[in-house]
Amino acid sequence: MKGRQEWRGAVVTRAQSIADGIRLIEFAVEGGLPPFEPGSHVSVEVMIEGAPAIRSYTCVSSDAGHIRLAVKRHENSRGGSRFMWTLVEGARLRITLPENRFALSWRASSYLLLAGGIGITPIYGMAKALSVRARPVRLAYAASTRGELAFAGELSELMGTDAEFFVSEEGRRIDLAAEFAELPPDGEAYICGPLGMLNAAKAAWAATGRPSSRLRFEVFGDSGERPEVPFSVEIAGIGKRVDVASDQSLLDALNAAGVDMIWDCLRGECGLCAVDIVELNGELDHRDVFFSDEEKREQRRMCTCVSRLAGGSAIIDTGYRKS
Ligand code: FES
Q1: Would the N or C end of the chain have less CB density within 10 A of its end CB?
Q2: Topology of domain 231-317, per CATH?
Q3: Separation of 263 CA from ligand 1 center, angstroms?
Q4: Is the C-alpha dihedral spanning 203, 206, 212, 214 positive or negative?
């Protein structure tokens, strides 16, 4: 079974570098586009070593009726960013219409937006939408180097001192506890960044005693705490062994091996791609935000779209049975 989205043809109308290691790629979509909100994402059909695979990207807000994506080149990528970086004007591919699971509530008295690295992609659109409506908003945007800050000039111009940049190479990091302390009680925080930043934010937010529903987050689908290395799985019930390369997701490897899988978000959020772990001979690297910390510690299930093994092997049960 495939993902449930509707696919459209698209043509690249612009592809350019906008920061160190980040390319902006703009698409015109066949049949036009409905309006979409900041935080929306699309799936893109990429080609990896000649085989199609699906990757999910967050949309940059667009006033021009196009879909714009900001794609960071990951040296250790599963092949998606490598493919996206090869796209030039006129290239054709397939894309889904924008969907939003990271929407602004518009109910808060004040907003704190936190971005780490390429996590600026949804946050940029939110910052613009809130600023143009004159809603109280502060942006704290962290990157490793100043050159890696995307949209910084535009955000500074739009937000003035409400936008602050934290460059770790210059010794500046976001003080999450201090940021949350400044937020009014009925304020909301939105964060997009690597898993480590997200986990730190969740812990700092919990320490404030604020309701968890007022911290909204999105994580990069491919950011883990362990390096990507090859591993293998055996599928219970059919005895098939599937090898997963370091630049491949477990879901991609299962699909390539003809195992019947379902999925949707491809970002570790919906849990549709999860499988049972029958036996584990290695260490699990959970990269999803679907399972709770306790469920992750139990090591009984994993999301195949983003989570992987840090080497070794496992026997998994996908629910797939020969008919
Ligand atoms: S497809 Fe949604 S968690 Fe994997």
Answers
A1: C
A2: Ubiquitin-like (UB roll) (3.10.20)
A3: 5
A4: negative
Task: Say what the pLDDT of residue 1 is.
Answer: 40
3-state DSSP percent of the chain in helix, strand and coil, to 5: 25, 35, 40
For the domain 7-100, what is the CATH code? 2.40.30.10
Dist. CA 289 → ligand 1 center (Å): 10
For residue 219 and ligand 1, the question of a CB distance below 6 A is answered with no
- CATH architecture of the domain with residue range 111-219: 3-Layer(aba) Sandwich (3.40)
Question: From the CA of 255, how far away is ligand 1's center (Å)?
Answer: 14
Whether 269 lines ligand 1, by a CB cut-off of 6 Å, is: yes
Q: pLDDT tens digit string along 246-265?
A: 878 899 899 888 898 988 88
Average of per-residue pLDDT values in the chain: 90
Measured between alpha carbons, how far is 290 from 227 in angstroms, rounded to an integer? 21
252 lines ligand 1 (CB under 6 A): no
Per-residue model confidence (pLDDT) at position 80: 82
Q: Between residues 27 and 75, which one has the greater pLDDT? A: 27
Does residue 289's CB lie within 6 angstroms of at least one atom of ligand 1? Answer: no
Burial zone of 205 (CB within 10 Å; 0-12 exposed, 13-18 middle, 19+ buried):
buried
Give CATH 3.10.20.30 domain extents, the chain. Answer: 231-317
pLDDT tens figures, 3-47: 567 889 999 999 999 999 999 999 999 988 888 888 898 999 998
Is the C-beta atom of 272 inside 6 A of ligand 1? yes
